[in-house]
Every structure is written in C-alpha cells, then in structure tokens.
Amino acid sequence: MTDKFNRYLFKYAYGVLLRSLSKNLFIFITLTLLVALLSATLFLSSAIKNEYTARVSHQADIIITNQKAMQYRTFDRSQLQSVLSIVGVKSAMGRLYGAYYFDKADKKLNIIALDEFESYSNKLLDETNTELEEASMILSTQAKNLLEEYYYKEYFNFIKENGTLRKVPIQGVLKSKDIQKRENLIIMRSELFRDIFDMDEREISDISVKVANSDELAFIAQKIEELFPSAKVTIKKDLLVRYEKSYNLKSGFFLSIFIISFFTFFIIIYDKLSGVSSHERHEIGVLKALGWRVGDVLEAKFYEGLLLSLGAYILGVFLAFLYVYFFNAAILLDIFLSQSDILHHVTLSFTPNIASMILIFLLSVPPYIFATIIPSWRVATTDADEVMR
Amino acid sequence: MTFIKLLFTLSLTVQLFASSEISNAIKEKQIYPMGKKIHTSRCPSLDISHFKTYEALLNAIQEKHICSDLNVKHSKALSIYLWDNKGEKQLKELPKITITKDEKCQVCGMYLHYYPTWVSQINYPKGETYKFDGIKDMMKFYFNNKEGIVDIFVQDYYSLKTLNAHDAYYVLGSDVLGPMGNELIAFKDKKSAKVFFFDHRGKKLLSFDELTAPMVHNLDR
Q: Could B160 and A212 be called an inter-chain contact, meaning their C-beta atoms sit closer than 8 Å?
C-alpha cells in the first residue's frame, strides 16, 4: 500500500460498500453475530473460571466429612484432636452447619453455626461473627424474604426434635455481598444451633484442615484417610479438578458449535475468493482505464475489507461485553452451570482476556481482508483491456 | 523377664499419664489461638500473676467471672493460654525470609521466587545477605565461606516458619525433592524430623553440627 492514508480512496471504498448494501449488510451481520457469540463464550468462561477459583481459594486445604452407608454423619470432637496431632497440620477446625426443613414453604434453610472465638478461613464469616449476638440470627436477604412471606418479621420459631418451639429473634441481614449469594442462609451461634438440633457439645459437622506446606498436602490427606478409613477426604485441588471435568464437557460442546460457525464463515470467504462478479471485474477495469495504479485499487479494496470486518469485530465484542456483564449472560450461563452447581447465583465480574480477544481478531479480520484483496489483485494485475472484454 | 515387664508397665503408665494431659500439638494449633482471641477481645488487662495454681485461675475465670461470662470450653482455653504463657515472654518468631522477583540462588543461579518454600539465607555482619534455593546449596556455600557469618536461616518443612539453622534437625536422602534434586530438609524439632524421616524414607537424621561437606556433596550423586 502507499505510505500515506488516502482519504479519497477510503471514501470510494465506503461508497462501494453502500452500493451493494444488502449483500454487505448480510455479511456484516453474520460476522458480527459470529464474533459476538465467540467472545461472549470466551468472556463467560473466563469469568466463571475466575469466580470458581476465587471461591475455592476461600476453602480449607482439606475437608473431611464423616459418612456411614454413604449418609453424612457428625464427627466427635476427639476425632478433631487426632487430626490436630498429625505433624504438618497447621490448624484444623470442627465446623458446624446444617439445614432446617421449613415445611410450610417446602424449603431448606441453610444454617452455618459460628463459635465466637474460633478463627474461620472465610474472612466474611469472621466479620459476621464479631457482630453476631448470642441467641439470635443473621439472615441472607433471600432467607429474610422467605420468612417474611410467612409473616416471620422479627423472629422465627424452630421446631425442635422433641416438638417444642425455640423462638429465635432476627438480628439483621448479612452485609457482605459475596456470602449473600448462598441460598437461604442463616448464621447463628453454635450454642443455639446445638440447642435447636439437639446436638451435644462434642458433635461437629465436618473438619476443615489447613496445611502450611502445600508439598506435603497429598501426604497429609493420605494420613487422614488412614485415620478415618470410611470418611470422605476432599483436597482443595480435587474441587478444581471436579469443576474442570464438568466444565470441560460443556466447553467441548461449545467448541463444536464454534467449529461449525467458523466453517460457515470460511464458506462465505471462499465464495468471495473464488470469483469476483463480472460487475466488479468491470469496475476494476474502468478504474484502471481511468489511470488508477494496481496499488490504488488494492488500497481501496483493503479499506473496503477493513471497514466491514473491523466494524463487525468491534460491534461484536461490544455486544458480547454488554450481554455478559450487563445482562449476566442470560441463557448461556444456564447451559454452563447446572442447578446443583455451587455457582448457581453468580454475578460475573469483569475479567479481560486479551489473548482470546486477539485470537478472535486474527480469525475474523485478516481472513476477510485477504478474501477481498486477493481476487481483486488477480483482476487488477491483468490487462485492463482484457478485463473489460 | 520381670525387669522387662516392669519396664513395659512403667512406660505404659507414663503414656497413660501423658495422654490424660492435652498434647502440645492440640494446644498450639487450637487452644492457644482461641485463648489469645478471648484474651484480646474480652479482657486484655487481666493480671494473673497472683494466681498460684492453674486450678485457681480456672476456678476464678469459671466461677468468679473475672473475664466476662464464658462457657466451659472458652474458659478452659483462656486459662490454659494464660497459664502456659505466664511469666515467660512470648518467643519472638523470626521474620519470614522474603524474596523479590529478580533474586537468584548464590550457588546455582536459579530464580528464587519459583520456590519460596525452599529458600534459605546466610547473613554477614555488614548487612550482606545471601539466599539459596535449598539447604543443600546453602551448605555448599557455608563450607567454603564459614568466616564471619552472623545468622543462618532455614525454613521448617512442615510449618514454613523461619528457624535458626543451628537449632534445626536435618533429614537427608528422603523421597521429597527440592528444586535442586536431593535435599537436606530442616525441622524445628527432632520429633517432627523423625515423623518425616519415617514417612518419606529418609536415610540420615542429623543436627547442624553433624553435617559435613562430603555428606552434602554426596547428595548430588
């Protein structure tokens, strides 16, 4: 091309695009949608991945759950102490949580019990903990709305195992946004929890373990497995692997869609490459007869291709951006996340993925530009007289 | 035979007696952090110097509520924490060995920030510090430049806390490999070193003074 930007050639290219408006508009829309779909999925997948790793990073290194005949059961405090005695365990905590079946609404109320002086791996729970009064509870907004539907505005009556009621005042609503997302969540002190569910002082729901040196993690997990042969020992890394397994299946499904849509796109390009219409041949012939050099014709064609494909690319990325971050990826998200997924209530946070943006750019813009330039170049290099004939 | 039996019964009674006490590991990992939290949040100014026995302290906390209203578990945690840390000053922990992105091992030249858990350090009087990507490389350096060293710091394998190299115990020839292959691995006490020795098939368990240059160089073979 020439070293200077030629405004007149650009104007001419713009004019050419407008002349066969319906055809170019069709290509533009197809390209835009293709780019939008692709980048939406890429935005979405990186956002979900980020969210998941962020959540998993809050988790303890090892979580031990007790089971009998594949039913969850509680641990005894002495078992926590035997975990603590393992050399290499930095800290271990007996966690206490469960769910209360609210039969009028046919809903589960998830309850996390906190001990005032235990330090939690989750910073958000720690903050809630310092504010929590004895013998009252803090609700997530969802849980609060649910209870309000049944006119429980200031307190809630838990029905205990022996049929008596335990009236628990509602202290307030959870402030932190992150933990809000957990469905129907209630936070209360462990003494209250034990009273409602008739659990004794020694029972704990599961054990979360922190290990200082991650090189030793697998070995310590193995030791714990030997200690409790029937318990389920989950390492933090396993959670990520489990997620990747289910997620990769879905991304594979999407990959096949991409391949199909890209083939469609390349068919459009092939169609353009294989033949310049006789009308366009004439046009190039006339331009050459008027005294345009080959370079000028190619520059005009370059602008034509650039205008259309870059426009489509930018619009496509913008649409994807709007769709994912402002409309929270309405339908795509449901395909990626199942009902049971821990990320079910998720707000996608902006995670720019430069590499994939460049990939989409390289897959869409340069092929289209070449597809416009190469056939024109073939025509432009032949003699004007021959072309016109 | 009777003597052996006697010895056996004796060791059994000692063990039984020991198990009735709360083990050190549980104290360190669970009770002290909880006690400390209670102490700082509820009664930071509590003076325990006039209590003669642990039972008296526990009784005062439980019955007389000298530190607000606590349940049994919490008052036990607080009194154990206060009693065990009474008089003696809290052992000051050595600061963690810090590494920047462009620091390299003095011996092999590998970047340190990829292997933060393996880094060790030698200090000289004029503020000169040398860092290494493993105790093996540090020892190679140490045997050649022994004069005038002020401090040698290594990291405890299990807790990753900084240790004075002279107080640590080392396991050689285990199946845990560092960035430079076979390593010397440091432990804060003989007990945890022994656990590691049996878990990871160590070949030797030595203190700092027992280490020799040929031993260290043999690790590379």
A: yes
- Nearest CA-CA partner of A76 in A94, A59, A60: A94
Pick the residue from chain A with its C-alpha nearest to B178.
A215
- The single residue listed with the structure tokens 């709007």 is A322
Smallest CA-to-CA distance from B155 within B141, B146, B165, B142 is with B165
Among candidates A210, A200, A204, A207, which has minimal Cα distance to A227? A207
Instruction: State the first-to-last Cα distance of chain B, in angstroms, to the nearest integer.
Output: 47
Residue among A84, A191, A213 whose CB faces B25 most closely: A84
Residue of A nearest to B73 (CA): A201
Rounded distance between C-alpha atoms, residue A72 and residue A67, angstroms: 4
Nearest CA in chain A to B191: A87
Q: Record the tokens describing residue B99, joined without a space.
A: 């590494």
pLDDT for position A281:
80
Q: Which of A116-125, A380-389, B88-97, B205-214 has maximum average pLDDT?
A: B205-214
Cross-chain Cβ contact B34/A118 below 8 Å: yes
The interface predicted TM-score (ipTM) is 0.78
Integer Cα distance of B218 and B221 in angstroms: 5
Q: Which residues of B85-123 are buried (b: 16+ CB within 10 A; e: fewer)?
A: beeeeeeeeeeebebeeeeebbbeeeebeebeebbbbbe
With contact defined as beta carbons under 8 Å apart, do A313 and A35 qualify? yes
The pLDDT value given to residue A180: 56
State yes or no: pLDDT of A328 exceeds 80. no
Contact A87 B158 (CB under 8 A): yes
Helix (H) or strand (E) run with residue B38 in it: helix B32-42
Contacts A213 to B, Cβ<8 Å: 117, 157-160
Domain spans, chain B: 23-92, 116-218
pTM above 0.90, yes or no: no
Q: Report CA-CA distances (Å) from A157 to A144, A145, A152, A153, A188.
A: 14, 16, 8, 11, 14
Taking any CB pair shorter than 8 Å as contact, residues of chain A touching chain B are 81, 84-85, 87-92, 116-119, 191, 201, 212-216, 219
Q: Which two tokens stand for residue A75?
A: 């641990």
Residue in A93, A114, A117 to test binding to B, most B beta-carbons within 10 Å: A117
Query: Taking the CB of residue B60, how many other CB atoms lie within 10 A of it?
Result: 18
Residue type, A288: K
CA distances from A382 to A129, A298, A375, A387 (A): 81, 13, 11, 7
Instruction: Tally Cβ neighbours within 10 Å of residue A274.
Output: 9
pLDDT in tens, A139-176: 888 888 899 999 999 999 999 999 999 999 998 888 76
- As a whole number of Å, the end-to-end CA separation of chain A is 28
* Chain-chain contact of A87 with B74 (C-beta, under 8 angstroms): no
Taking each helix axis from N to C end, the angle separating A278-289 and A354-381, rounded to the nearest 10 degrees, works out to 70
Cβ A309 vs Cβ A364: under 8 Å: yes
Q: Which of A84, A92, A117 sits opposite B38 (nearest CB)?
A: A117
